[in-house]
Amino acid sequence: MPKTSRALLDALPREPVMTSTGTVELRRERDDPTGVTVVVNGVPSSHLDLADPRRLDFEYMQQMAAVLDTWDVPGGPTAPVRAIHLGAAGCSMVRYLEATRPDSRNIAVELDARLTELVRTWFQLPRAPRLRLRTGDARVELAAMPTASADIVIRDVFAGDATPPHVRTAEFVGEVHRVLRPGGLYLANCADRPPLSEARREVATVATRFSAVGVIAEPAQLHSRRYGNLVVVGTDDPDVLDAPGLARSLRTLPAPARLLTGVDAASFASGAVPWRDGDAPHRRLGEDGPTPGND
User: Fold this and answer.
1) CATH classification at residue 255
2) Is residue 285 part of a domain?
3) What's the DSSP call for residue 144?
4) How far apart are CA 137 and CA 139, in angstroms?
5) Domain encompassing residue 185
6) What are the tens digits of pLDDT across the range 203-257?
7) 186 lies in a domain?
8) Strand partners, 180
9) ω before 195 within 30° of 0 (cis)?
10) Is residue 161 part of a domain?
11) What is the DSSP string of 6-69?
């Protein structure tokens, strides 16, 4: 193990730490000597390998990474990008982009001010301009960002085990679309249980603003057989979802996943009504639901 990683791990707290909204705990496993799971208010929200930022343990993050890795942006697969991360927690996806696309510019928004301070200290996150950490509500902060200023927006915002209603509506997706450059990429983490009614509405909502929409999940989830996290993708560049190798990359993940696009994605969302501002808050998933993540 690199000396830097060992020093970071040895300095991490062993007990829960108070934050602005509750507590954060860093969990370690005997068979994962360089890994840390960030647990926010009792919910596993990030996993980091302090020796290897390319390692992503959460399955939905692996799925997002597969999209990012096959995305043919100008300059090639390692070209730097401008990314906005709504829901920061341990900044796993920030670290991944740092490793795979050096010199990228990241803005990470986190509601919990104290958590933001702690993770920057604990994990030696990059400094500005490579990473700017902002404290505040994800939608409020997004609304303040310039038009066409980002290549990627990643939404991984949770309140406990549920996505806050105001960051899943058509109006919110409209703000995402405004902030993205033409052909930019929106990735949203959606946790749901059978019959996937919330995921179907999520896809229908993203389709109100983006011309190409996809949904990624394990086959058992798509057949409404178990709880899990799905990744909803929105873009105005259809080539993103048709990228050579993307479907194969998803199939060869440790937990193989399937990508629905075009007619299949439309069929998945058939009959689902897009969310709008003013809709009643949705139910919480409950303790037996999937690990939502919050990165």
Assistant:
1) 3.40.50.150
2) no
3) T
4) 6
5) 54-268
6) 999 999 999 999 999 998 888 777 889 999 999 999 999 988 999 999 999 999 9
7) yes
8) 150
9) yes
10) yes
11) HHHHHHS-SS-EE-SSSEEEEEEETTEEEEEEEEETTEEEEEEETT-TT---SHHHHHHHHHHH
More confident residue, 77 or 47: 47
Q: Are 293 and 44 in contact (CB under 8 A)?
A: yes
Give pLDDT tens digits for 97-109.
999 999 999 999 9
Instruction: Measure the CA–CA gap between 35 and 48, rounded to whole angstroms.
Output: 6
**Does a structural domain hold residue 177?**
yes
Number of domains observed in the structure of the chain: 1
Q: Which tokens hold the place of 128?
A: 């500005």
The sheet carrying 258-260 orders its strands as: 131-135, 105-110, 82-86, 150-155, 180-192, 228-235, 212-217, 258-260
- Amino acid letter for position 192: D
CA nearest to 84, candidates 123, 110, 45: 110
Q: Under a CB-based contact definition with an 8 Å cutoff, are residues 268 and 195 in contact?
A: no
Query: Whole-model pTM above 0.85?
Result: yes
CA–CA gap between residue 293 and residue 274 (Å, rounded): 23
Distances in Å between the Cα of 124 and the Cα atoms of 4, 11, 53, 118 are 10, 12, 12, 10
What is the rounded CA–CA span in Å between residue 266 and residue 43? 32
Q: Which runs of E-coded beta strand occur in the chain?
A: 17-18, 23-29, 32-40, 43-49, 82-86, 105-110, 131-135, 150-155, 180-192, 212-217, 228-235, 258-260
